[in-house]
Design a protein that fits this description.
The protein is built from 27 helices and 20 strands. By secondary structure, the protein is an alpha+beta fold. The protein is globular, with a radius of gyration of 32 Å.
Length: 861
């Protein structure tokens, strides 16, 4: 075995091991059992403590809703120090016993959870509705709307900052905001609502000089008594230190530009404050005044830092501070410092109160989830069978590489704390479907070299070399789409972008490293003799360009049908995600299945019906909540009562809900597509030249509009799918862009190569030959992805059906466009003259050419 293969094997083993470790535990562990198993000292004594916590939960679940909360309360009630049971977990930086206990319990709770976060649709979570203090809202409608919109944005940023992935945040009624947080429960996270809804009112005030509550029971005029906490390092206890603080602050939080949590010199954490330019001047002026009074009074003044009415610190001020920043040092744990910095960066201007707190069940019922996951498994299985059937041992190698691909994707997602929702599962399957493209491209190039008379080992080397540039170019352009989704998207859209980017990175590794060394090894060992000898689907010299005009007419007809369908159905084109709707809630005596609810929607031609089962955490009352299109709430309730009288439905109320994807996010969605197209235009221009770039980008625009037009037509007119545009559809469109550009670049890479290899043939002949040579790869890849999409569309549930349906249409139109639109546009731009191409581009030299250097040479004019 040569060193190159051995190095790649070692690298593969290291990466796989790292991913497996990152995924453990795969499922959430019962916290009580995890605590017992994790203790490394005095295990019997600690097991007795955990047993008492379990008993408290059984005896009084209202006071002790979970073992985690019971342990926290017992630490205070019984003066426990948990660090002696977990000496292997270093919390020595926390001098206070209370802080050590809190840090340990939070860390142990985190470790007990599955490393893969599941979305609301798969796991459920918590829904909290905040009511806004109406007295703090403006009487002007436009200003009032702006205040609510800003509060909603700040809440979104706070939830993101706490690591809650893919939250859903929307208006609920006129003055309420609903947040749905996947994978969260208030039993183990009792402080999360307080953190999210904290006003973050930061103030700086003067501390009374030479007098304190310890020396005088009466506060000086204009001052009030406040206390701050101090962790005594000797006793390990938290002491309360009283101070007299001036009632009127000298500075407010508006001077803060950014707050950041960072470690201090003593093992703890502080919040570093960076001031705005104007804030730095004001802070310097205040500290200058204190320093001047120091000289007059012969004492050292102090400046109190107060957040939401709590005194955190009161540092001494000996001289003017003009460094542009300050620190809040309040003996914080790392988590506390991060959370505090998060709310300081997003201060609320209006008061919020948690009015409703519900535990949200998975938005997809068990049967719907099972059918969608089964569809995903069938899709992956079909892809595997296809590859093995066409490429035999090569297909087996590709399937092993795909399995490693999935492992790497899940491992990286676990490392990044990313969320896997059902659209993410679909995206994962479709990413796998697209991943086979690189293997097919390599295998087809090896076949060509074998048919040209090369030995299998030489053909393997040259096949990888010739496919490399197309693989890199196509994957970079696809990853652009994912990066743009992460940059401009939010919630599930952003989550899908993360999954897509991780998938592309994993794909490159498995194709260029894992599959490569396996193929090298079986060829080196002589385990295969006739690999890749079968005929392919290439059709030499098929005149594709001769059909460019009929193809454009067909594309135009599809666009026209789509436009007409969109105009006819314009009121129903966007779903609740984009325009909001009604939300009705009801109690029930027996559940109605998701499938039955969907049947009612279809039977009565309802545009949308999104059910969730929720449990009120205050009363333990379960309810069914259904989101419908605006104006359909009462109609849906009447239909449900008529269809299911045995369910015992009882009306609770109805709210008008705002869009989960508001105007700003809709703008970002459209901007995502525009930026993706611009990025691809620039990249292809730099890697090829402007003619290729125009052909690629214009064919992408055709692909998107044709796909959307057909999707709207079959959904709105033929009633196959919903034909609606929702949040996940943005992800589907950008995935289509990635797939279509991938297809086009493979063709153009071959055109560029053929122009160099054959310096005398006319441009149309070169394009036709290139399309013919890449036809087998195009059809094989398309067939694999089409099969995966079709299975998801037929057997999937909820949004998966529309997602897969749109992608299925996109794959077909993208394949059509790469053959009949991109190449003709490139041909027309260069006026059908290869000299025009050569005049605009330095054609590359390839390693496999004989007798030439690797440096580019000037093309013949």
């Amino acid at each position: 075995m040569n060193k190159s293969i051995l190095t790649k094997i070692i690298l593969t083993v290291v990466v796989m091991t790292w991913c497996i470790v990152s995924l453990i535990p795969i499922e959430d562990q019962p916290f009580a059992k995890f605590l017992r198993d994790s203790a490394s000292a005095e295990k019997d004594s600690f097991s007795a403590i955990v047993a008492r916590a379990e008993q408290k939960v059984k005896d009084n679940s209202e006071v002790y809703p979970s073992v985690y909360v019971a342990m926290r309360k017992m630490c205070v009630e019984d003066a426990l120090d948990l660090s002696k049971y977990f000496p292997h977990l270093d919390v020595s930086d926390q001098k206070s016993v209370a802080k050590r206990n809190d840090t340990l319990l939070r860390e142990l709770l985190r470790r007990s959870h599955s490393k893969i976060n599941l979305g609301l649709d798969l796991k459920g979570g918590v829904s909290v509705t905040f009511g806004i203090n109406e007295q703090q809202l403006s009487s002007q409608d436009w200003e009032r709307a702006e205040q609510i919109s800003k509060a909603k944005k700040i809440l979104s940023e706070r939830v993101d900052g706490l690591g809650v992935a893919e939250p859903i945040i929307r208006n609920k009624g006129a003055t309420r905001i609903e947040i749905q947080m996947p994978g969260i429960n208030t039993k183990d996270n009792p402080d999360i609502l307080k953190t999210i809804g904290a006003p973050a009112l930061l103030e700086f005030s003067l501390v009374a000089r030479n007098v304190s509550p310890l020396s005088s029971p009466e506060a000086p005029l204009g001052y009030t008594r406040m206390t701050m906490e101090y962790d005594d390092p000797k006793t390990g206890k938290t002491e309360q230190i009283p101070e007299y603080v001036k009632k009127v602050p000298v500075l407010k939080g508006s001077i803060i530009k950014q707050a950041t949590a960072r470690p201090n010199n003593f093992g703890g954490f502080v919040i570093a404050l960076n001031f705005t330019d104007d804030g730095a001047k004001k802070f310097a002026a205040v500290t200058r005044q204190i320093a001047e009074e120091n000289q007059i009074t012969n004492s050292v003044g102090r400046l109190a830092i107060i957040l939401d009415g709590k005194l955190y610190s009161a540092p001494s001020v000996k001289e003017e501070i003009n460094s542009g920043g300050a620190e809040i040092s309040g003996h914080f744990t790392q988590r506390e410092a991060i959370e505090l910095a998060n709310v300081l960066n997003n201060p609320l201007e209006v008061g919020l109160k948690a009015e409703e707190i519900y535990e949200v069940g998975p938005t997809l019922a068990t049967d719907a989830r099972s059918s969608s996951l089964m569809a995903a498994a069938i899709s992956a299985g079909l892809t595997a069978l296809f590859m093995i059937g066409v490429y035999q041992l090569g297909g087996v190698i590709a399937c092993i590489a795909l399995a490693v691909n999935v492992l790497i994707i899940l491992g990286i997602m676990a490392m990044l704390n990313a969320t896997l929702s059902l659209p993410g599962v679909a995206g994962l399957v479709l990413t796998i479907g697209m991943a086979v493209d690189a293997n097919i491209l390599i295998f087809e190039r090896i076949r060509e070299e074998v048919r040209a008379g090369k030995s299998l080992s030489v053909a393997n080397l040259m096949g990888h070399d010739k496919a490399f540039s197309a693989i890199i170019d196509s994957n970079i352009t696809t990853i652009m789409s994912g990066a743009i989704l992460i940059w401009l998207g939010s919630g599930p859209i952003k989550g899908f972008g993360v999954t897509l980017c991780i998938g592309i990175i994993a794909n490159l590794f498995t194709v260029l490293i894992v599959a490569h060394w396996m193929l090298d090894l079986v060829i080196e060992k002589g385990w295969v003799k006739k690999l890749f000898m079968q005929k392919t689907l290439s059709i030499p010299e098929f005149p594709f360009l001769n059909y460019r005009k009929p193809a454009f007419i067909a594309a135009g007809v599809c666009l026209l049908i789509g436009i007409v369908s969109a105009v006819v159905s314009h009121k129903d084109l966007t779903g609740i995600d984009f325009k909001g709707g009604d939300e009705i809630s009801m109690t029930y005596s027996s559940k109605i299945s998701t499938n039955e609810l969907e049947s009612i929607r279809q039977t009565n031609n309802l545009t949308e019906l999104n059910p969730t089962y929720q449990k009120d955490l205050a009363t333990n009352v379960e309810r069914l909540v259904i989101q419908t299109a605006a104006g359909e709430g009462e109609k849906v309730f009447a239909l449900l009562q008529k269809a299911h009288p045995e369910a015992g439905l009882n009306w609770l109320g109805m709210n008008q809900i705002g869009p989960a994807v508001g105007r700003e996010l809709l703008y970002n969605a459209l901007l995502s597509v525009a930026v993706a197209l611009l990025g691809m235009l620039i990249y292809v221009t730099l890697r090829f030249e402007i003619g290729y770039a125009l052909g690629a980008v214009l064919s992408l625009i055709f692909t998107v509009f044709m796909s959307l037009g057909i999707y709207i037509f079959i959904g709105q007119i033929l009633n196959i799918g919903t034909g609606q545009f929702t949040g996940p559809m943005v992800a589907a469109v950008l995935t289509i862009l990635g797939y279509a550009i991938n297809d086009t670049i493979v063709v153009f890479d071959r055109v560029r190569e053929e122009l160099e290899l054959d310096p005398t043939t006319k441009l149309d002949k070169v394009i036709n030959r290139s399309l013919s040579l890449t036809l087998s790869r195009t059809l094989f890849t398309s067939s694999s992805v089409i099969a995966s999409s079709f299975i998801l569309a037929v057997f999937g549930a909820d949004v998966i059906v529309d997602f897969a349906l749109l992608f299925l249409i996109g794959v077909i139109t993208g394949t059509f466009a790469s053959i009949f639109i991109a190449s003709p546009i490139f041909y027309w731009y260069h006026k059908g003259d290869r000299k025009h191409v050569e005049a605009h581009h330095l054609l590359p030299e390839y390693d496999w050419h004989t007798g030439v250097s690797n440096k580019p040479k000037e093309a013949t004019k």
